[in-house]
Design brief:
Layout (H helix, E strand, L loop, with lengths): L2 H26 L3 H10 L4 E2 H8 L3 H13 L3 E5 L7 E5 L1 H13 L5 H9 L2
Antiparallel strand pairs: 1-3, 2-3
Helix pairs in contact: 2-3, 2-4, 3-4
Length: 121
């Protein structure tokens, strides 16, 4: 693929993801990154490192997103039992409900992205 064509495809991808994020915010009140954090935590108790690994965010970006999810009452933090310096995160009841609602209701995936999601099945 020609390099400039690749950039144009990435532009289209970013535009499609932006549309998905707008839909998530309007429908569920969460950003795409917050939704990814909710999915990364799920029913587990996880460290920030685990969230970073799952989402691919930088530590700084993950920290801001985690804080935002906490501010919305979707996530809470707990001190580590063995190492009090370590923080662990769990979904609150509100966070579990929000994640369940997203799973049940879903989002409208733009046709352009639908093929990518079909490959992941």
């Amino acid at each position: 693929m020609e390099k400039i064509q690749c950039i144009c495809v990435m532009r289209d991808l970013v535009r499609a993801l932006s549309g998905l994020e707008s839909q998530l915010e309007e429908t569920y009140g969460v950003t795409l990154n917050e939704a990814m954090v909710l999915c990364s935590v799920g029913e587990d108790t996880v460290s920030a490192g685990s969230i970073i690994s799952c989402t691919g965010m930088t530590a700084s970006h993950a920290s801001k997103t985690i804080r935002s999810a906490e501010d919305k009452g979707l996530l809470s933090r707990k001190l580590g039992e063995h190492d009090k310096r370590q923080m662990y995160f769990v979904l609150t009841r509100k966070g579990k409900n929000r994640l369940q609602h997203i799973k049940e209701q879903g989002i409208d995936v733009p046709e352009w992205l639908a093929a990518l999601f079909a490959v992941q099945k």
